[in-house]
Request: fold
Amino acid sequence: QVQFVESGGGLVQPGGSLRLSCAPSGSISSIYYWGWYRQAPGKQRELVAGMTSGSSTGYADSVKGRFTISRDNAKNTVYLQMNSLKPEDTAVYYCYAVTTKSRTPYWGQGTQVTVSS
Reply:
C-alpha cells in the first residue's frame, strides 16, 4: 500500500523560505503529473503549482514569482520551493500525484505551513 508523504513544513517569518518535498513510501511507477495544493481553514483546497511529465509547469497567480515546483525522477520526489512567504500562504499543503501507467491518483496527508512573525 503506497502512501505519499510530505515534509518540510513548519513555522517561518514573513519573507522567509521553506522547501516542501513529497515522495512515495513504497515502490511505484513513474509519475505522469505532480501537483501541490493548499487549504486554509474555512477555505476550499486550491491548486498552487503543477508539473507534467514533460516538465511543463503552472502556478496560481498568487504564488507566481515566489514558488517553484521541481522534481527528481529517480527518486519520484517532487519539491515546492517557497520564497518570500506571506501570512496568506499559511495553509496545509498537499501533494498530488498521478501515475503514468494507470493514471492512479494519490494524495499526501498534508504538511502545515505557518507564516507569522
